[in-house]
Amino acid sequence: MNKLEAFGYIAAQAARGEITFPTSVNAVLRLQLALEDPDCHVEEAIRLVLSEPQLAARTVAMANTAAFGAGGVQVTNVRAAVLRIGYRRLRGLVAALMVRQFGHRIADPVLRAKAEQLWAHTAYVAALAQVLARRVTRVDPDTALFAGIVHEVGGFYLLSRADEFPGLLEDDPENWGALCEDVVSAEVIRKLSIPADVAGAIAALRDGVLNPEPHTLLDTLLLANRYATVASPLGAGEDRLDAGPLDAAIVRALLDEAADTAQALGDATLV
């Protein structure tokens, strides 16, 4: 099967709704559904977080970032961390764990390196989106963080399938964009029950145009992608740090503020 046939095969599967996730992703999906249950008591939430060591560690780390810290007082346990960050922010951490699970079954070292770079890019975009939402666009910061975490989920899914199709991810921006953003991402996002406002902003990213006065979730994601210090390995020559509407000093301040949140989301190494 050549590359174009592989594109067509995966796109056709997605169009039919035949998207299958690794077992580890399905496990985190069950965790997400449990936490989103309105009857989920805080004690049950704490138990669920403790059942996933990576999530427990990231929850404590996130609670101790500048974005969520209270007067410099550090928390050292999951209970205090969950109470500090709240359920809505916990949703973002669960999404981060879920997105990273797509990379765990990748065997090819080149593809694993792409997945690790894609995660590093994702973490920076998510952290920057949260800061930009607070400081620039004035959209909900928690929604912006979540949107940043899941905005490349279609790319992670394709990386998880690329072992089956040698050459699938060779440079081919036109076909890659049509496959990833227009077909696969849409179906993966549907399967993950991503909220409509977030799904719409992600769908509009590839051809999105920044408003003169940025004020939407799409604007937030466009800016975060432009200023993220790690580029996506799946992108096609995006504008970088010096080509945006914000003053360079403001960008540096935003990057500094986002750095600890990006770190709290986890380093790029897949385990």
UniProtKB/TrEMBL annotation:
Database matches in PROSITE patterns: HDOD
Ranges for domain HDOD: 21-208
Pfam families registered for this protein in UniProt: HDOD (PF08668)
Protein name: HDOD domain-containing protein
Species assigned in the record: Telluria aromaticivorans
